[in-house]
Design brief:
mainly alpha, disordered N terminus, transit peptide
Length: about 375
Amino acid sequence: MFSSFLTRAMCQNNTSSAPPKNETPQPQQMGMVQSLVAGRTIAAALTAPTPSEGDSCEFGSMHYFALCGLGGVLSCGITHTAVVPLDLVKCRIQVDPAKYKSVFNGFKVTLREDGARGLAKGWAPTFFGYSAQGLCKFGLYEVFKVFYSGLIGEENAFIYRTWLYLGASATAEFFADIALSPMEAAKVKIQTSPGYADTLRVAWPKIYQEEGLNGFYKSLVPLWMRQIPYTMMKFACFERTVELLYRYVVPKPRSECSKSEQLVVTFAAGYIAGVFCAIVSHPADTVVSKLNQEKGSTALEAAKKLGMAGLWKGLMPRIVMIGTLTALQWFIYDAFKVAMRMPRPPPPEMPESLKKRLQAEGKL
């Protein structure tokens, strides 16, 4: 079943069937895919391309999806680890607002009690957890985007492209959070429970001893509640913002922009998407922090204890953190694609078939 899914995801023709006896065999295009860029069919060459031949892999191939996953590991692992100090203060504001009254006060109290090294608490589970999440998030997003577009057809993939982005990103994040949850549980314990554990190798056995496997996955549902809306906004808002920036802001077509100019657009679109991501997912993020701090509590109990005002504590540092984080993630991911000479289709355009149909109906 899984191999069948991958075959459909890559839109590959079945090469096992022989041509009719009286029919001249036609050369096959291996790994043919229809990209989300309307009117473009991308087929792999029969031989592996050399560096001078342009792209290093075929769009929609297993090689392509694997590289996308690796780009996700780099973009998420590096960026989340880089903002651990801000994330630590944000989590502490969420679970103990009486002690950590603001971002600056949170840094001050943490430095006074734990020293500069205290700001790096939780870096190991952050790095490993979000690297695993990035692998699934970006890699599977590309898989499901191609797979769903193949299911609904080229015209519908353009007309309903926002829904396509939302659906592909939601499905990818569902699996990404399963990979993230154990490390997220350890990270929050280290950061918000003084004296519990200072390192991952101490926190993991302790969580398992006290709560069993449930200790690693008890916050999975609120994690889905936080991360799935976040990721849906992250990918759909980014894709549409890039489209709008090239249409209304950038003074020349994308094809005439240099790689550096394209990466600037990527960063800007990523930051805009990040601001919306932070707002949409913040209440669930607060519940996750509170839930992992307190043993035996449920998501509903944590939300009731926090109250409406408490659910929005730490929003401003999270907007700064997530905005910067999302922009850097997209920048690193796109820069990785450039460095690896991966196919980078331009924003989608209306398919010729749809254009002709709308013209015939007088709607264009």
